[in-house]
């Protein structure tokens, strides 16, 4: 097999495309011929040595793949099966990858590999955040920050599928247009508008029932000013680079909750829940309620340039690397 490997930590430029021996399969594992591997911002952190999971070099980035099983030690996933998988030890930026049965999912027949690779981590994150952590209900108002990004675009679609009114924020006219195309009822260009004022205006002063926040920093601080009575702010990440602090006295007086959602904990500790979530997501996909926003699908050879684009936050939706079959 061939793979992009890092022999030290650093920017995407440190990755080297090289031949690697196929490691043996353990009981229950499958070897996947990778057709598509999604790029997530955590892949950039992983390569830089700044992710929660810090590998020992040499390492292969990539947590999210789709393709065909070519070798199996798991009876339920025979050779020839079309699958998507999340890889706990990474390894997706390659021609082949190894996955375990708990996080490998048989694909619906009509689902393209590019969609499949983009519809595990970010969509499960959005699903858990909205349904399990925030208890979204029809009629709720959901404020989605960074709505044109990978996880934000998933959250917009999932909130709409749940019957919520969606207010999304993004930077610039192009990205706000993307939010509207995804189904957002209101799209706010945070570079030109005060989202707090818009949310209050659109909700007649009540505020957002749920705030979906992958940004942190000033965005979190401002969100506390427009969350509704008994609302929920779901902390997804800190793309701004600053980890904010919740003011306990403000939570007390305003009666709202701040809850966390880290997908990796569910993947490791509760794979039964991730499988249920993925089944629900495939059902929504089949109904046409959700579809990943794949903004580009360059060949695997362009992995480093694609990672740099994701790191710059200039992209929309997901970039998916492809090994042409």
UniProtKB/TrEMBL annotation:
Which SUPFAM superfamilies did the record assign?
GroES-like, NAD(P)-binding Rossmann-fold domains
InterPro entries according to UniProt: ADH-like_C, ADH-like_N, ER, GroES-like_sf, NAD(P)-bd_dom_sf, Quin_OxRdtase/zeta-crystal_CS, Zn-ADH-like_protein
The answer, when asked if Oxidoreductase is one of the entry's keywords, is yes
Residues annotated as domain Enoyl reductase (ER): 10-321
| Pfam families assigned to the protein according to its UniProt record, in alphabetical order | ADH_N, ADH_zinc_N
Molecular function in Gene Ontology: quinone reductase (NADPH) activity; zinc ion binding
Q: Which UniProt keywords apply?
A: Oxidoreductase
Q: What is its EC number?
A: 1.6.5.5
Asked if the record carries the keyword Oxidoreductase, the reply is yes
Q: Which PROSITE patterns does UniProt cross-reference here?
A: QOR_ZETA_CRYSTAL
Q: What PANTHER family does the record point to?
A: QUINONE OXIDOREDUCTASE-LIKE PROTEIN 2, SHORT-CHAIN DEHYDROGENASE/REDUCTASE
Would you tell me the protein name for this molecule?
A: NADPH quinone oxidoreductase
Q: Which organism is it from?
A: Sorangium cellulosum (strain So ce56) (Polyangium cellulosum (strain So ce56))
């Amino acid at each position: 097999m061939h793979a992009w490997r890092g022999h030290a930590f650093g920017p995407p430029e440190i990755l080297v495309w090289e031949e690697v021996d196929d490691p043996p399969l353990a009981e229950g594992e499958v070897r996947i011929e990778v057709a598509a591997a999604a790029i997530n911002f955590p892949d950039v952190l992983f390569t830089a040595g700044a992710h929660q999971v810090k590998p020992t070099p040499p390492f292969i980035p990539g947590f999210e793949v789709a393709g065909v099983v070519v070798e199996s030690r798991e009876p339920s996933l025979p050779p020839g099966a079309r699958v998507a998988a999340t890889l706990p030890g990474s390894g997706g930026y390659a021609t082949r990858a190894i996955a375990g049965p708990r996080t490998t999912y048989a694909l619906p027949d009509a689902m393209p590999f590019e969609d499949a690779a983009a519809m595990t981590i970010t969509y499960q994150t959005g699903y858990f955040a909205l349904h399990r952590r925030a208890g979204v209900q029809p009629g709720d108002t959901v404020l989605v920050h960074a709505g044109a990004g990978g996880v934000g675009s998933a959250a917009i679609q999932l909130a709409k599928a749940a019957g919520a009114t969606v207010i999304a924020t993004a930077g610039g006219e192009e990205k706000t247009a993307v939010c509207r195309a995804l189904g957002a009822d209101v799209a706010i260009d945070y570079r030109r508008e005060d989202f707090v004022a818009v949310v209050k205006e659109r909700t007649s002063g009540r505020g957002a029932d749920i705030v979906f926040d992958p940004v942190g920093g000033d965005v979190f601080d401002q969100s506390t000013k427009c969350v509704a009575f008994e609302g929920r702010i779901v902390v997804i990440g800190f793309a701004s680079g600053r980890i904010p602090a919740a003011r306990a006295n403000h939570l007390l007086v305003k009666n709202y909750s701040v809850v966390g959602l880290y997908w990796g904990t569910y993947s490791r500790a509760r794979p039964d829940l991730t499988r249920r979530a993925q089944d629900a997501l495939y059902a929504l996909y089949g109904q046409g309620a959700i579809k990943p926003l794949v903004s580009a699908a360059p060949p695997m050879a362009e992995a480093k340039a694609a990672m740099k684009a994701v790191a710059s936050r200039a992209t929309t939706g997901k970039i998916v690397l492809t090994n042409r079959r």
